Amino acid sequence: MVTTTAKLTLDEYREQEAIAQVRHEYRNGDLIEMPGGSVNHSHLLMALYVLFESMLDNADYEAFNSDMRLWIPERNQATYPDLMVVTGEPIVNGDRRDEIVNPTLIAEVLSPSTSSYDRGDTFAAYRTVPSFQEYLLVEQERPAIEHYWKTDDGRWHLEELRGLDAVVNLEHLPVQLAVAQLYRRVRFEGS
């Protein structure tokens, strides 16, 4: 990840991002260039979106791909999660039609350059969003998913799922994800 050297205002970031050829996260004045993806990363992103769209085929939920930005007010941060699911109507940030503030679920496909950040600082930032209840971290090198969910008492629990026979049972959405279906187009090294 590449960080800019000069601090930008939020308005300057939004102006630049509207015409940028590569996407950037905004972290309290810093622009961080988002790395490009791999074939496996792309397959997993598409599968996540298609699976959620097909399983949440009603007016109560809406899935967003990585083109939609998440605004995290408590951190003064804008980011592009790989997938977000909103319960009910999406709430936009003021008059911004390109930033939402109320995801229930966020999923990230891990890459070598972002996996530590997605598990640490990113997850910490997401947890400041009041509507956020569930987090999926999807490995691209092997069939493995880390499933985090928030309980009624505000604690976060982790379930680690390994192998193509596993099934992710979401706690806050009416969804069961078969790991084999999610990884059906992924090519693992040596296969």
UniProtKB/TrEMBL annotation:
Instruction: Name a GO molecular-function annotation.
Output: endonuclease activity
Q: Does the keyword Hydrolase apply?
A: yes
The record, for PANTHER family, names: GLR1098 PROTEIN, RESTRICTION ENDONUCLEASE DOMAIN-CONTAINING PROTEIN-RELATED
Tell me the keywords, alphabetical order: Endonuclease, Hydrolase, Nuclease
Q: What CDD domains does the record point to?
A: DUF820-like
Where does the source fall among the domains of life? Bacteria
Q: What is this protein called?
A: Uma2 family endonuclease
Query: Which Pfam families does this UniProt record tie to the protein?
Result: Uma2
Alphabetized InterPro entries for the sequence: Nuclease_put_TT1808, Restrct_endonuc-II-like, Uma2
Span of domain Putative restriction endonuclease: 11-177
